[in-house]
Write a structure and sequence with these properties.
Elements lengths: L4 E13 L5 E19 L2 H8 L7 E5 L10 E4 L2 E10 L4 E7 L3
Antiparallel strand pairs: 1-2, 1-4, 2-3, 3-6, 4-5, 5-6
Length: 103
């Protein structure tokens, strides 16, 4: 599978510890763990017809199995934030349905 695009996780990122030893997190793009993928436009109607899934969908993403891809997490691609609405796990790849968040 040709994976020509890169998306990044979006959410809480570990920054370090404060003076009491409590962890400090900030919200942002996780540039340390890029996810190589292929992404294409998709729709909720197609998701229902092809997969029998009722979910809000604007794009479909193909990637290798990755621990950072799970339901309810956010991805960042081309200055836009996407919510993962469904993850279809296969032996060698994931098909991920994502919904573009309003800016």
């Amino acid at each position: 599978m040709r994976l020509t695009k890169i998306v990044y996780g979006y959410g809480l990122i570990f920054e370090g510890y404060d003076y009491r030893g409590a962890p400090i997190y900030s919200e942002g793009i996780d540039m340390d763990n890029p996810i190589q993928c292929e992404i294409e436009p998709f729709s909720s109607q197609l998701a229902g017809n092809l997969y029998g899934i009722s979910a809000q969908v604007t794009h479909r993403l193909f990637c290798n199995p990755n621990q950072n891809v799970s339901l309810g997490k956010y991805l960042y691609y081309l200055d836009e934030k996407y919510l993962i609405t469904s993850v279809l796990e296969y032996d060698r790849h994931y098909e991920v349905l994502i919904n573009k968040e309003a800016s």
